[in-house]
Design brief:
CATH superfamily of the largest domain: Butyryl-CoA Dehydrogenase, subunit A, domain 3
Helix content: 40-55%
Shape: globular
Largest sheet: 4 strands, mixed
Structural class: alpha+beta
Number of strands: 10
Bound molecules: flavin-adenine dinucleotide
Radius of gyration: 22 Å
């Protein structure tokens, strides 16, 4: 295993983190007050978001995950951990910086695998913030879900192009997205049977069937069921080679899962901050809640869960930066971060008493949102299978200490 640099962050990253944190607290958290700027689905009203995005650009904090050549700040995965965490201290944070899913993962994968012409046509407008995007993989039964080899949406070669037929659902952002990536079946080969394509929402044969009502607050554009009825597109809209759809999915999903973890850490910290504000002043039996042992134990467990998830996230980010797939590292981080978010939100609601159950604080928003964390981008059970599989394959390698060969890392 290659050298690890430990868990410190460098001063430049820390300075950026501090600027993002200050911006979020000064400009975004106030927009949460009284739900005055909420849209119908518990997210920031799209006009308020637009104004905020202009401010973020002016502050030089836009798209930190994108390479500088593409208009971003060129941060490594490792540097993104504290920055994304700071960003999601507000429930409205990530889209303001152009760092919300699914745009975040879509931009990253297009930057990695698209041709220069495809980048100019499909990536640049997302990076600039002119359009939003969606990633369409999951299908209703009996199509693909946890198991992408079950995907049924089919792309058939016709002349110089492709015709796509099928149905997808729970496609985040589809209600407002202009650019879509779709994973479709091009053959029955078990490993190389899928291919990815990019298309515009105005393409004939594409339609939104419905915006699926969900229990949580929604990303802009909701979670939609979409249909392809003979949608014809050119071969220049194919991403990577024919049969590389699973590979593209793996390239996209690893970092996308990890950036979810980073954002969830920020939300979890916010839940605990809301808790601290109440238990520091609220009394029971002549004592502050914060001085009661059973309350402190709940806080300790929630804070420890966040820190464990953060260290796992940093380790996986470092592994990705080294060019590794970091499969089990990402799975461990994702399971831990999803659970830490649940614990923090639940602890907050419990310790705020009745107020925690109200919509006066963001805790109930975070609690409802948190439930998707154990499902999206791979259910926790699937990630646990990956972790167990890695350990069973080689228990010694699983727990091998990374050896640092340079003096600075010792
Ligand atoms: C809010 C939200 C947003 C989403 N956004 C998108 C999106 O933008 N694009 C997109 O393509 N998809 C999206 N999805 C879909 C999401 O990725 C899938 O829900 C997820 O991959 C699981 O697939 P499924 O729902 O078909 O569950 P199924 O595959 O039907 O599995 C159901 C349950 O069975 C268990 N299970 C399944 N397989 C295994 C296994 N191998 N081992 C152990 N247990 C297993 C798990 O508990 C799992 O939750 C979104 C989902 C939600 C809830």
């Amino acid at each position: 295993m290659a050298v690890t640099t430990g868990f410190a962050i460098d001063p430049a990253t820390d300075a950026l983190r501090a600027r993002v944190a200050a911006f979020v607290r000064a400009r975004i958290v106030p927009l949460e007050a009284g739900h005055a700027h909420d849209d119908a689905h518990g997210n920031l009203d799209i006009d308020a978001l637009g104004a905020l995005r202009d401010e973020v650009k002016a502050a030089g904090l836009w798209a930190p995950q994108m390479p500088a050549a593409q208009g971003g700040l060129g941060l490594s995965m490792r540097a993104l951990v504290p920055v994304y965490e700071a960003m999601n201290y507000s429930i409205f944070g990530p889209p303001a910086f152009n760092c919300a899913a699914p745009d975040d993962g879509n931009m990253r994968v297009l930057a990695q695998v698209a041709t220069d012409a495809q980048k100019a046509r499909w990536l640049a407008p997302i990076v600039d913030g002119r359009v939003r995007s969606a990633f369409a993989m999951t299908e209703p039964h009996p199509g693909g879900g946890s198991d992408p080899t079950m995907i049924r949406t089919r792309a058939t070669k016709q002349g110089d192009g492709w015709v796509i037929d099928g149905r997808k659902w729970f496609i985040t952002g589809a209600g407002i997205a202009a650019h879509f990536i779709v994973v479709a079946r091009t053959s029955d080969d078990p490993r190389r049977g899928l291919t990815a394509f990019v298309f515009h929402r105005d393409t004939p044969g594409f339609s939104i069937v419905r915006r699926i009502p969900v229990m949580g607050p929604e990303e802009h554009g909701g979670h939609c069921e979409i249909a392809f009825d003979g949608m014809a597109i050119g071969d220049d809209q194919r991403l990577m080679g024919v049969g590389d759809g699973l590979k593209l999915t793996q390239i996209r999903l690893g970092p996308a899962r990890l950036t979810h973890c980073m954002r969830w850490l920020g939300l979890a910290r916010r839940a605990l901050a809301e808790t601290a504000a109440y238990i520091g002043v609220r009394e029971s039996g002549g004592r502050k809640l914060a001085d009661i042992d059973s309350v402190r134990a709940m806080l300790a467990d929630a804070a420890t869960a966040i820190d464990v998830a953060r260290l796992l996230t940093l380790r996986a980010a470092e592994s990705l930066d080294r060019g590794e797939f970091a499969r089990r590292e990402i799975s461990m981080a994702k399971v831990a971060a999803a659970d830490a978010l649940h614990r923090a939100a639940d602890t907050g609601i419990q310790l705020l008493g009745a107020r925690g159950y109200s919509t006066d604080t963001p805790l109930e928003w975070i609690y409802r949102y948190a439930r998707q964390a154990r499902l999206v981008d791979g259910a926790s059970e699937v990630h646990r299978n990956v972790i167990a599989g890695a350990w069973l394959a080689d228990p010694d390698a699983f727990f091998a200490w990374p050896v640092a060969h340079d003096a600075a890392a010792r």
